[in-house]
Amino acid sequence: MAGAEDSVAVDQSDHNEDVRIEADGNESAGIEEAGPSGGDAGEGRQQASEEDAAQNAPPHIPLSPPEDCIAVTPDRGVLKKVLEAGESDDKPSLHARCLIHYVGYLASSGEVFMNTRTDRETEDPTVVVAGRTAASQETGLCLAAASMTRGERALVYICDPAYGYGALGSFSFPAVPPNSQLVYEVEMINWEGIEETDNDRDRGSLLFEERLERAERRREAGNEQFKEGRYKEALAKYALALSYLDEDFMYQLEGHYLDKAEAVKVKVHLNMAATQLKTGDYGTAIYNCGQVLNINPNDVKALFRRGKAKHALLRTEEAQQDLEAALKISPKDREIIAELHAVRASLKTEKEASKGLYKGILGKPSPAAPAAATAGAEAATAAAPPSSSSPAAGADLGASATTTTTTTTGPEKRPPASRAATAAAAPPAARPPPRSDKKRGKRDGLAGIGDSLAAPLTRLLGLLLGALLWVGARMWAVVPKWQSPTVAAAAAAAARRKRAGQQRLARSR
Questions:
Q1: How far apart are CA 158 and CA 108, in angstroms?
Q2: Separation CA 112–CA 121 (nearest Å)
Q3: What is residue 474's predicted lDDT score, i.e. its pLDDT?
Q4: How far apart, in whole angstroms, are the C-alpha atoms of residue 214 and residue 249?
Q5: What is the pLDDT of residue 88?
Q6: Under DSSP, is residue 63 helix (H, G, I), strand (E, B) or coil?
Q7: CA distance to 40, 138, 158, 160, 256, per residue, from 262 (Å)
Q8: What span, in angstroms and rounded, lies between the C-alpha atoms of 206 and 198?
Q9: What angle (nearest 5°) sits at the alpha carbon of residue 348, between those of residues 342 and 352?
Q10: How many angstroms separate the CA atoms of 199 and 118, rounded?
């Protein structure tokens, strides 16, 4: 019996294994059959998620922006649809504290991630800063609040996640997935103005966003002064804005915070350069443009304004380089093209002036020099005695030689008077033939060049001598001033040593 039971058990186990294997085979077959219809299942899930989003969102909240939306940002990353107009046309000032209520939805699912009336311990409105861009999250909501009026209700669409919670999202409260597009239903309750004071000494206790906002507000105030033509007051406001972005503050920043601070600093330096071009302070304008180019070497405004300042300082070749670099970045900018044409015209004028200068120094000799040389040569020729090659002179010489030969019979014994007479009657030595006209012209040309170079060289030597005399006078006036304290100190020390020696000598006695 036991054996029979064992055999039955074995048979049953084998049958169960066969059933399991067949079941596995059916499961695998089922998986293979489901493969071709996987895309249909994915589309079905996507349609289901869209239907769920439509069911989660209120009926008056479209999750996609309508066509009649207003662009809050130039890149249309933030759009606004007005649901109910406000009480007046007044809008909050820059960085005003706005009191709002809002409900935030995820555009992908319609899920509410924040409701300021129910998700907080208090029912008071939440505070956002109008126009704040220094924050790392919800900058789109702050920009939209700056465009709203008191009592206005609007839908704000964050189409670019960079204006929402960015690529990282938020894993705390409120929970927002990365790279999420958002929809806000916003109601503007009221706002509080910014109290501006002249005391800017408490900047060390300010938060990062507050420092950047104060710098931005002072830059905006400087822009208003610039529009009114009050350039000195505008520069004062810009300098005050830079005081909030000093080196100690910038050294502590990195990443997102450094980028935001540098963006404000670039605007301030560019505004200062534009103002200094108006006042004629071209050297400082070049410095401010250089500060911008240290941060962004391809900034078109900085290259253009630095090139314009260098052109005003007659540094035309450097100005041409800056303007050509700016034109490569912005090839259709009319101001850059016009300024570059002006610089090239200035370069052409400078080259022509340089050619004229060298032509005046090393040019053709004056006509007076060759005429004088020719007149001198003619006078010398006229004063010269006849040459021995003439026939008359030869006949006279022969006659005198014959006479001398016939009268002189012995050794020459003549008195001194006869020797002098004979020397006077002797013909002069033969002179070399005159130079050719070609050599004479070359000599005259060199003389003319020397005459033309004499005046500039004399002026140059006079300038150098005057400069040396001026430097010597300055050194003569300065040297005693900085030497006198040393001499006086040495004299005082010698006097003290002398008194100390006398006192020691007196005590020893």
A1: 12
A2: 17
A3: 65
A4: 14
A5: 85
A6: coil
A7: 50, 20, 25, 22, 10
A8: 16
A9: 145
A10: 40
Alpha-carbon distance 441 to 374, whole Å?
Answer: 9
The pLDDT value recorded for residue 6 is 42
Report d(CA 177, CA 174) in Å as an integer: 10
What pLDDT is attached to residue 233?
94
How far apart are alpha carbons 281 and 313 in whole angstroms?
A: 10
Q: What are phi and psi of 392, to 5 degrees?
A: -60, -45
Residues in the chain where the model's pLDDT stays below 50: 1-46, 48-50, 53-54, 368-369, 372-373, 379-380, 383-414, 417, 420, 478-484
- pLDDT value of residue 141: 93
* 186 bridge partner residues: 102, 154
Which positions ≥6 away from 427 have C-beta within 8 Å?
Answer: 385, 388, 393, 397
Q: Which CATH fold topology does 203-355 show?
A: 1.25.40
pLDDT at 449: 59
Length, in residues, of the chain:
509
Letter for the amino acid at 179?
N
Domain ranges of the chain: 70-192, 203-355
Which three-class secondary structure string do you get for 374-404? HHHHHHHHHHCCCCCCCHHHHHHHHHHHHHH
> How many beta carbons lie within 10 A of that of residue 278, not counting itself?
13
Nearest Cα to Cα of residue 95 among 138, 145, 152, 48: 145
- For 1, 2, 16, 19, 287, the CA distances from 9, given in Å and listed in that order, are 12, 10, 10, 15, 97
State the burial class of residue 153 (Cβ atoms within 10 Å of its Cβ: 0-12, 13-18, 19+). middle
d(C-alpha 358, C-alpha 458), whole Å: 16
312-329 pLDDT, tens per residue? 999 999 999 999 999 999
* d(C-alpha 348, C-alpha 235), whole Å: 36
User: CA-to-CA distance for 100 and 121, rounded, in angstroms?
Assistant: 16
So what's the pLDDT on residue 104?
93
What integer pLDDT is reported at residue 359 of this predicted model?
61
| CA-wise closest residue to 440 among 378, 505, 361 | 378
- As beta bridge partners, residue 170 has 176
How far out from the chain centre does Cα 192 lie?
A: 39
pLDDT at 395: 37
Give the architecture-level CATH label for domain 70-192.
Answer: Roll (3.10)
For residue 206, the 8-state DSSP code is S
Cα separation, 455 vs 245, whole angstroms: 58
